[in-house]
Amino acid sequence: MLLNLIGVAMLLPVSGFAQGQERVINKLSWRTEPIKILKLKTKGKPIELGKNFLEEDDWLKGLTVTVQNVSDKPIARIVLDLSFPRPEGTSETISTFSEKLVYGLDPSDAQDAGAQKQVLPGESVDVKLLEANLPFIKAALVELGYPEKITRARIMVEFVTFTDGTAWNGGDILYPDPTDPKRKFNPKVPLIRPIPPDRSALPSRPPLLLFQNASLQSTYAPAILNNENFPLWKFLLLQDPTLPCNTVFVTTQHLDCGTGGSGCTYSHNVFDDSIELLGLRDARKDLETVLCKKSDGTTCSPNLISNFKRSPSRRSDCRRWVRPAGLQHGQWSH
Known about the structure:
Layout: H1 2-19, E1 21-28, E2 35-42, E3 45-47, E4 53-55, E5 64-69, E6 75-84, E7 96-104, E8 124-128, H2 134-143, E9 152-162, E10 167-169, E11 172-177, E12 180-185, H3 221-226, H4 232-238, E13 248-256, E14 265-272, E15 284-293, E16 299-311
Parallel strand pairs: 1-9, 7-15
Antiparallel strand pairs: 1-4, 2-3, 2-5, 5-8, 6-7, 6-9, 9-10, 10-11, 11-12, 12-13, 13-14, 15-16
């Protein structure tokens, strides 16, 4: 009997080690999304969103996300954002590391029809975290000062490109720039000139006069600021710092990393916080750190890039002043 108890006691630490540590993957959701996450698995075993599971430190190995096209258009490319939250209470000025899971190609990258892996409406595909990227992820987390044990991650649908070149991002449909089809722009915010490459690095931001008379949902910020009859309390309401939306989303473009060879890029989101666009804010941006990728999602450089990403926000809570019917730009009632 004593020998049996000793044997059980000797096995307990081994069993505890084999069970690993509790991990969890949560999901950030947009109000509408063109794809639906059906299931996840890691290391060949199924897991559920938002539910803890026991796994070792290599718990991201083999991470596979099965998604279904729930839109009415064929999909060419899917990008999922896998981020690693900082401890609660961390300053917003400290970035969160994000890895990108990629399926397919932008239509402008496909050399022929056979290279394009379409996902037709109703079809499902697997979007995988590439095993070759795991050492880069681990090194990035260490360099950014994350704890040694990573137990939490968040997944989000970031970008979906359709076969016609248009794209979904943050609930909006973006359109390709005719001069650079991989660059997608928000049609509600017309650009008056290209964004210079030197604007890509933080802490730089888009130039103050990037837009001319930009209009979103019949809202016209310069008219508000230039109208002396517009009440001050309405102006202050537009700038309420508690509003979920804190910026205007403009465009997304692929910028060359320069150190990883040809085709080594990162997706750069451009926002505008300028005073000309008060009241037009339709997005929320958060600071992230990313790694440069090839078009297939392979990490091509160990250098870390600071960037802003678009995050879900309650748009219905973003107060906007709508131009009353019959009034022209520059004419406001109060």
